[in-house]
């Protein structure tokens, strides 16, 4: 079935039609003098044929939503599809009040018109068997699992009270929080998680370092006050590594919305290379519509994390975007590093990727 409505929607969305949205072979032969016409067609121009609703409408409406979100958030776009966070997953700790982190994530979901998924998992503490056959310990373990399930029900009620049943979904389970969150991260564009730093047991909350390495998704660690992310000014902590490159792309929705994005790197032995590196990143961002500038910070006696956090304060940034574990995790654990130091600092929102 052909419909002009889909044709209008696709044109307004200013998109390139995918290969599935091609007219029939007979129509193409007739309109092109016997030669086949191939898609996709230039963005923003009317296609020379009506489009099948079943093939194109869902794709077109998704693009319209992306464009509307771009306009409402003041994004500057130079053409092409814009990356958006369509699904956000927030991790909750079973032993702490959920509302602050839920409200933080819910503000992001409303901002990006995204679906919100709340996730919580925990394992019972292991106990040493006090009997010969272990039956008493088995009963205790079952009781602890039941207690966890009751806590999960309470958190689910808190989530539904804040968000509503129609605006989000719930994932609650008994098991390793870090492994289960990394497993289910495939369903989300962005994770909001706790920077535990070893304060709580890994049976009750996530290990942030392990999550960064295993999730395959950008992770936003909120500030300690759980104030909503304004991202008017953003600091990109740049080091020419795969992890930093990944983080820049994953943070693009925030960077596009920012009034000022500072790409800062700390000068190393090769000063020319440092300037060249940040300059290329700024050019990349500007081509995508980001208002970005660069800065090479001279090396000093201060530690790199301290220097970067101070620079964030100078520009009034409430979001810092570093790569996660540019060095090996073992080396950072032994000698310290930017990732560990930023995870330990709860004064600012941190978006990390690996």
- Relevant CATH superfamily of the largest domain: HUPs
Strand content: 15-25%
User: Which structural class matches the secondary elements?
Assistant: alpha/beta
Number of domains: 3
Poorly predicted ranges:
1-55, 73-81, 330-336
Overall spatial form: globular
**What gyration radius follows from the Cα positions, in whole Å?**
24 Å
CATH architecture of the largest domain: 3-Layer(aba) Sandwich
How many angstroms does the end-to-end distance come to?
Answer: 45 Å
Element-level helix/strand string: EHHEHEHEHEHEHEEHHEHEHEHHE
Overall strand count:
12
Let me know the average pLDDT.
77
Summarize the topology:
Layout lengths: L1 E2 H10 L11 H7 L19 E2 H20 L14 E5 L7 H13 L3 E8 L12 H29 L4 E7 L2 H8 L5 E3 L15 H8 L3 E3 L11 E5 L4 H9 L1 H6 L2 E7 L4 H17 L4 E6 L6 H12 L3 E4 L6 H7 L2 H7 L4 E4 L2
Parallel strand pairs: 3-4, 3-6, 4-5, 6-7, 8-9, 8-11, 9-10, 11-12
Antiparallel strand pairs: 1-2, 7-12
Helix pairs in contact: 1-3, 4-5, 6-7
Summary?
The protein has 354 residues and is an alpha/beta fold. It has helices at residues 4-13, 25-31, 53-72, 99-111, 135-163, 177-184, 208-215, 242-250, 252-257, 271-287, 304-315, 329-335, 338-344; strands at residues 2-3, 51-52, 87-91, 115-122, 168-174, 190-192, 219-221, 233-237, 260-266, 292-297, 319-322, 349-352.
């Amino acid at each position: 079935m052909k419909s002009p409505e889909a044709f209008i929607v696709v044109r307004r969305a200013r998109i390139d039609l995918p290969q599935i949205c091609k007219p029939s072979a007979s129509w193409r032969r007739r309109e092109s003098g016997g030669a086949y016409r191939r898609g996709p067609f230039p963005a923003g121009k009317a296609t020379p044929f009506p489009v099948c609703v079943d093939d194109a409408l869902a794709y077109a409406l998704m693009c319209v939503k992306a464009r509307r979100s771009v306009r409402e958030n003041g994004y500057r776009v130079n053409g092409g599809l814009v990356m958006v966070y369509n699904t956000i997953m927030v991790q909750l700790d079973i032993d702490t009040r959920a509302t602050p982190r839920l409200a933080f994530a819910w503000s992001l979901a409303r901002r990006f018109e995204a679906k919100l998924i709340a996730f919580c998992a925990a394992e019972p503490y292991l106990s040493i068997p006090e009997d010969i056959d272990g039956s008493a310990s088995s009963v205790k373990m079952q009781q602890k699992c039941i207690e966890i399930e009751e806590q999960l029900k309470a958190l689910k009620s808190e989530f539904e009270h804040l968000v509503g049943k129609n605006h989000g979904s719930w994932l609650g389970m008994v098991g390793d929080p870090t492994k289960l969150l990394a497993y289910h991260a495939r369903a989300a564009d962005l994770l909001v998680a706790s920077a535990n730093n070893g304060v709580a047991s890994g049976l009750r909350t996530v290990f942030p370092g392990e999550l960064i390495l295993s999730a395959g998704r950008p992770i936003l660690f909120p500030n300690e006050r759980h104030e909503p992310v304004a991202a008017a000014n953003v600091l990109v902590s740049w080091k020419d590594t795969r992890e930093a490159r990944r983080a820049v792309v994953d943070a693009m929705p925030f960077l596009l919305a920012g009034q000022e994005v500072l790409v800062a790197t700390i000068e190393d032995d090769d000063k020319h290379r440092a300037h060249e590196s940040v300059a290329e990143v700024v050019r990349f961002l500007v081509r995508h519509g980001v208002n970005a500038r660069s800065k090479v910070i001279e090396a000093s006696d201060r530690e790199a994390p301290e220097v970067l956090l101070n620079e964030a304060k100078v520009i009034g940034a409430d979001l810092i975007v570093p790569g996660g574990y540019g060095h090996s995790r073992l080396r950072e654990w032994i000698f310290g590093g930017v990732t560990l130091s930023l995870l330990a600092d709860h004064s600012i929102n941190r978006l990390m990727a690996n």
